């Protein structure tokens, strides 16, 4: 007797998961994103305006968010 879950398990074993960013690159990418966010947020802090919010502030916050997650994963703490 075959169960649907067992069929899904067997079908998934034929195509393993390959991440888009490998384990060896996560530290470098995380460090680069965190450094970029530091530079962008420093420039944004020096001259705040509505225009620089969309040009510098939002990319800085996105770079910090993704960089923090990549650094956490690179050192072995999985979220």
UniProtKB/TrEMBL annotation:
GO terms for biological process: protein N-linked glycosylation. Keywords: Membrane, Transmembrane, Transmembrane helix. It is found in: Membrane. It is a multi-pass membrane protein. The keyword Ubl conjugation does not apply. GO terms for cellular component: oligosaccharyltransferase complex. It comes from the Eukaryota. The chain crosses the membrane at residues 25-46, 53-78. Component of the oligosaccharyltransferase (OST) complex. Subunit of the oligosaccharyl transferase (OST) complex that catalyzes the initial transfer of a defined glycan (Glc(3)Man(9)GlcNAc(2) in eukaryotes) from the lipid carrier dolichol-pyrophosphate to an asparagine residue within an Asn-X-Ser/Thr consensus motif in nascent polypeptide chains, the first step in protein N-glycosylation. N-glycosylation occurs cotranslationally and the complex associates with the Sec61 complex at the channel-forming translocon complex that mediates protein translocation across the endoplasmic reticulum (ER). All subunits are required for a maximal enzyme activity. Belongs to the OST5 family. This is Dolichyl-diphosphooligosaccharide-protein glycosyltransferase subunit OST5. It comes from Melanomma pulvis-pyrius CBS 109.77.
């Amino acid at each position: 007797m075959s169960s649907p879950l067992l069929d899904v398990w067997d079908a998934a074993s034929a195509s393993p998961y390959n991440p888009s960013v490998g384990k060896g690159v996560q530290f470098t990418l995380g460090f680069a994103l965190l450094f970029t966010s530091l530079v962008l947020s420093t420039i944004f802090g020096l001259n705040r305006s509505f225009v620089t919010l969309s040009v510098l502030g939002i990319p800085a916050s996105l770079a910090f968010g993704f960089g923090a997650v990549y650094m956490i994963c690179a050192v072995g703490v999985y979220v």
